């Protein structure tokens, strides 16, 4: 019982504040470094290329400054980009949400690592080669090449809205952790996080974001590993941790229950996890922008390989941390005992009770959580600003901007998004279960846009009408299921079926909460679904409805389709008319691929001389 009582004596020491402040200083310093010294050096190198007459690709954003700011001139290195990819997905949501998921629902979620492996194969072989050969600035450019400007605008607007709703989640999670160990108000913390991130993102561009992400992810991984190592030592051994988890019914790896209503099953994790991870990593602009910042397809594929190893390792550590937390609180649930008010505070309270007396370790842990938040936040801000410039202003509104205007627009968007994120934290504070909320909200846009790209790359006869009808159907069904589920949960019609907990060793007079689950049979079936199934349903709806609508409205003539717009896994099945004549140079540049595809609006890239092929697509 004493180990639970001692919690109140542990709070941030001056050494913890020092470690935390060092992380904040390095974040801002990296942004300043790439904003001034590295930026000037990159521009000088670009000017030397021009002066020496070296053959260069057309500037992707019309000016070298914007190309450097948003894409790093497509000359970034594999390892920092790989770490930035990890940072794009891993946030405080992953760290704190995964731990609470394992604690309350068992280890079935750990099987998500299998889905991640298949995701990596699908992304690198099916989707990435298309973006690479077209050399897009934004992934949504592809939708205009394949379908129409309207489809591109629809997807890009959905992306912006999705990221706006995701930003406060990224801010709120580390604020919870910091509040737990310092008592500082959540809204003050989230505002400070956002200001720091906005500063170095505005100043340094993608290079600052990528290189800052690299060491932030390192700090994050080290911090969690230190906590896990010390916690495992205090538990006795790894075997003791798994033994306690087994006795408490937490070791669940093969629950083959076919019910789609159960929160975690093997099928839900494998199928739902695969679609969710693939939809995010294959076509989401936050990921594609980093793929495109590398100089070649092969290097982009290597970055996915390193990213996959890193993300599997990190998720596995977080899952094991969930078992450690359960081992420590197996006789006293901290929520029931009143030690915490949100289930996502489990790991912070565990850190303070187990390693709180090791000065500097809690500070390192919170620095890791903040690093995860800053990396995700900066990635979203940078990518959303690019989409606003390239897809909304230039693509949708068809406005031509000067370099100065483009710079003001991009940096202004980053600033406005930061303000919106801070404001929306007040709304998020009323919700619970961060992992499922983040997955459900993101699934609406992710499932629909992924369905659109899949329709374009894997269904050659799909057309513009089919894409529009499919997208609307997918968005409606995903939104209906997701928000309906949240409303049902908020009203108490649906409750998560948590595994058994204990309070027998809790200090004071703590009673076991009543786990009385109401009859959910009267709730509309789709609103009872596990959050894992929202994304696959959105994807299948978009592709199925889009395919049917394409056939009804007149399918695309495949012989007039450009092969570069179709995934290479289908190239062997396409007629020879889809490929350019052997005498035409097929160099991978924007000048002879994406530019002509956008200009002629018929889906066929011309030769280097700018002439369009007679086999132009029909949409």
Automatic annotation (TrEMBL):
Annotated GO CC locations: plasma membrane
Localization in the cell: Cell membrane
BP-aspect Gene Ontology terms: sodium ion transport
Classification via Gene3D superfamilies: Sodium/glucose cotransporter (1.20.1730.10)
Membrane-topology descriptor: Multi-pass membrane protein
Origin superkingdom: Eukaryota
PROSITE patterns recorded: NA_SOLUT_SYMP_3 (PS50283)
GO molecular function per UniProt: symporter activity
Annotated TM spans: 17-37, 78-97, 109-134, 154-178, 184-203, 215-236, 265-283, 304-326, 364-387, 408-428, 434-455, 467-489, 533-552
Compositional bias of kind Polar residues: 609-619
Keywords carried by this UniProt record: Cell membrane, Ion transport, Membrane, Sodium, Sodium transport, Transmembrane, Transmembrane helix, Transport
Annotated spans, Disordered: 597-619
Main location: membrane
InterPro entries xrefs: Na/Glc_symporter_sf, Na/solute_symporter, Sodium:Solute_Symporter_SSF
Record Pfam families: SSF (PF00474)
Database matches in PANTHER family: GH19970P-RELATED, SODIUM-COUPLED MONOCARBOXYLATE TRANSPORTER
NCBIfam families (alphabetical): sss
Family listed: Belongs to the sodium:solute symporter (SSF) (TC 2.A.21) family.
The protein's name: Sodium/solute symporter
């Amino acid at each position: 019982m004493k180990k639970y009582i001692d919690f109140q004596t542990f709070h941030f020491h001056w050494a913890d504040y020092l470690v935390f402040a060092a992380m904040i200083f390095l974040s801002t310093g990296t942004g300043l470094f790439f904003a001034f010294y590295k930026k000037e050096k990159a521009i000088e190198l670009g000017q030397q290329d021009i002066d020496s007459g070296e053959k260069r690709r057309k500037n992707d954003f019309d000016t070298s400054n914007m190309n450097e700011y948003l894409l790093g001139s497509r000359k970034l290195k594999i390892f920092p980009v790989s770490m930035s990819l990890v940072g794009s997905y891993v946030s405080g949501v992953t760290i704190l949400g995964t731990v609470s998921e394992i604690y309350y629902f068992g280890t079935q979620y750990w099987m998500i690592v299998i889905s991640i492996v298949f995701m990596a194969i699908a992304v690198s072989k099916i989707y990435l080669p298309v973006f690479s050969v077209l050399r897009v600035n934004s992934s949504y450019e592809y939708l205009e090449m394949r379908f129409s400007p309207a489809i591109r605008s629809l997807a890009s607007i959905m992306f912006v809205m999705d990221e706006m709703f995701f930003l406060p989640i990224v801010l709120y999670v580390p604020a919870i952790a910091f509040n737990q160990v310092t008592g500082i108000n959540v809204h003050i913390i989230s505002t400070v996080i956002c200001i720091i991130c906005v500063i170095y993102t505005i100043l340094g561009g993608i290079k600052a974001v990528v290189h800052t992400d690299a060491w932030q992810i390192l700090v994050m991984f080290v911090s969690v590993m230190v906590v896990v190592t010390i916690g495992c030592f205090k538990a006795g051994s790894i075997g003791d941790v798994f033994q306690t988890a087994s006795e408490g019914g937490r070791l669940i790896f093969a629950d083959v229950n076919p019910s789609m209503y159960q929160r975690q099953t093997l099928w839900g994790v494998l199928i739902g996890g695969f679609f969710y991870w693939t939809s995010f990593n294959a076509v989401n602009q936050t990921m594609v922008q980093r793929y495109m910042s590398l100089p070649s397809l092969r290097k982009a594929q290597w970055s996915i390989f390193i990213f996959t190893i890193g993300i599997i390792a990190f998720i596995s550590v977080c899952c094991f941390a969930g078992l450690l937390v359960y081992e420590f609180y197996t006789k006293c649930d901290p929520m029931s005992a009143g030690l915490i008010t949100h289930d996502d505070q489990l790991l912070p309270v565990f850190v303070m009770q187990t390693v709180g007396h090791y000065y500097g370790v809690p500070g390192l842990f919170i620095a890791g959580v903040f690093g995860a938040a800053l990396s995700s936040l900066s990635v979203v801000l940078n990518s959303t600003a690019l989409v606003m410039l390239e897809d909304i202003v230039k693509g949708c509104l068809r406005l031509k901007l000067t370099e100065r205007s483009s710079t003001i627009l991009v940096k202004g968007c980053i600033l406005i998004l930061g303000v919106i994120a801070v404001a929306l934290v007040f709304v998020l504070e009323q919700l619970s279960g961060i992992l499922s909320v983040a997955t459900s909200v993101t699934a609406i846009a992710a499932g629909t846009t992924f369905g659109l790209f899949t329709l374009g790359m894997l269904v050659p006869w799909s057309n513009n009408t089919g894409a529009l009808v499919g997208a609307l159907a997918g968005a409606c069904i995903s939104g209906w299921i997701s928000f309906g589920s949240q409303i049902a949960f908020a009203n108490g019609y649906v409750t998560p079926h948590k595994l058994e907990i204990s309070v027998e060793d809790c200090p004071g007079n703590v009673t076991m909460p009543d786990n009385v689950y109401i009859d959910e049979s009267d709730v509309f079936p789709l609103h009872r679904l596990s959050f894992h199934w929202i994304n696959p349903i959105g994807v299948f709806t978009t592709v199925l409805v889009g395919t049917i609508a394409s056939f009804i409205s007149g399918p695309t003539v495949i012989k007039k389709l450009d092969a570069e717009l179709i995934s290479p896994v289908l190239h062997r099945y396409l007629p020879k008319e889809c490929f350019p004549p052997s005498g035409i140079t097929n160099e991978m540049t924007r000048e002879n691929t994406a530019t002509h595809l956008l200009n002629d609006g018929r889906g066929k890239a011309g030769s280097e001389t700018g002439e369009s092929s007679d086999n132009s697509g029909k949409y």
